[in-house]
Write a structure and sequence with these properties.
heterodimer; A: 154 residues; mainly alpha; Arc Repressor Mutant, subunit A; 7 helices; 51% helix; globular; B: 156 residues; Aminopeptidase; 6-stranded mixed beta sheet
């Protein structure tokens, strides 16, 4: 699954700020830490501010501070500010011919979407920060390299 | 008795193995949360995992001031679906008014300790996809998606 850039930047910023709610960070500090565009991040933080997840800090230093409830806010709450998860795909457009194939594809893809939505709704920012602290990916066995598609092999 | 912790003044919470006398409280709590009354089911579960059958599994309750405020049930299963022995949690509930006070975590920790004592190093569970509350609870305890997929089909 891939998220849009704005969504990813939003998750970086919210989790970074929620990890220490008393701390304020500037756009440049967050952008430098994650190697992302400060210009793009600034727009994302304005959107997060309008949604009440972060608040701009006035005065010397400025920056942003986390303003939400890390126990209540979920990854889905952040993601759905920037994109739709589980939205209907092009395969959903009904066809005069091949309607069953379209419906069958929709059925299978809906299975994946339902799992994705359930997972994102179940992980609060607090749970996510605990997971990050545990680093479960470091305990996983090395994955074999992904198979190339026929198009990539050409 | 596994653990005692004060959660409200004059109401220490005790995590302990369930007894037959706890079943009315368990049945009532389950009915209050799920809307379904299942006395035979809970008596059968107690028969399998209650105090006298601890080697088969763990049926633990959280009691405060003589009232059942939560419970958890689990057992070690071996070689189902090709999996080496691991602990399975198949029921957990905490009274709504007592949630977010650490009771669920105490119950979870206690049942995991029973699994460790039984020699397994992994715990699993299954839940309804739309049960966000219980899904969030297990995630908050550190559980993540496992390597199995649940499939089903109608038989009618």
């Amino acid at each position: 699954m891939r998220l849009q850039k704005a969504t990813t930047f939003a998750l970086y910023a919210v989790l970074e700020l929620a990890a220490n709610p008393a701390r304020q960070l500037t756009v440049v500090e967050i952008a430098n830490k994650y190697g992302i565009s400060a210009h793009h991040l600034a727009k994302v933080l304005r959107d997060l501010g309008r949604a009440g997840l972060v608040e701009a800090v006035r005065g010397v230093g400025g920056g942003y501070r986390f303003a939400g409830n890390a126990k209540r806010l979920t990854l889905m709450d952040v993601i759905c500010l920037f994109e739709e998860i589980g939205a209907e795909t092009d395969a959903a457009a009904p066809l005069v011919a091949g309607q069953d194939i379209a419906a069958g594809l929709r059925f299978v893809l809906a299975e994946l979407d339902a799992q994705t939505v359930a997972t994102l709704r179940s992980i609060s920012l607090q749970t996510m920060l605990k997971l990050i602290g545990r680093r479960p990916w470091a305990m996983m066995p090395a994955q074999p390299p992904a198979r190339q598609s026929a198009r990539q092999r050409r | 008795m596994v653990k005692a912790q004060r959660s409200e003044p004059d109401e220490p919470v005790v995590i302990r193995r369930a007894t037959a006398a706890d079943m009315p409280g368990v049945i009532a709590l389950d009915e209050a949360v799920t809307g379904l009354r299942k006395p035979e089911y809970w008596r059968e579960v107690f028969g399998r995992y209650g105090a006298a059958r601890r080697e088969q599994g763990s049926f633990l309750v959280a009691e405060a001031a003589g009232r059942i405020e939560g419970f958890i049930v689990g057992e070690v299963r071996a070689w189902e679906f090709g999996s080496p022995p691991c602990g399975w949690i198949f029921a957990v509930q905490v009274r709504a008014a007592r949630r977010e006070q650490g009771l669920g975590s105490q119950l979870f920790d206690a049942v995991c300790e029973s699994f460790r004592a039984a020699g397994v190093d992994r715990v699993r569970t299954m839940l309804a996809r739309d049960d966000t509350v219980i899904h969030a609870f297990f995630r908050s305890q550190g559980m993540t998606a496992g390597p199995f997929i649940q499939l089903e089909m109608r038989l009618d």
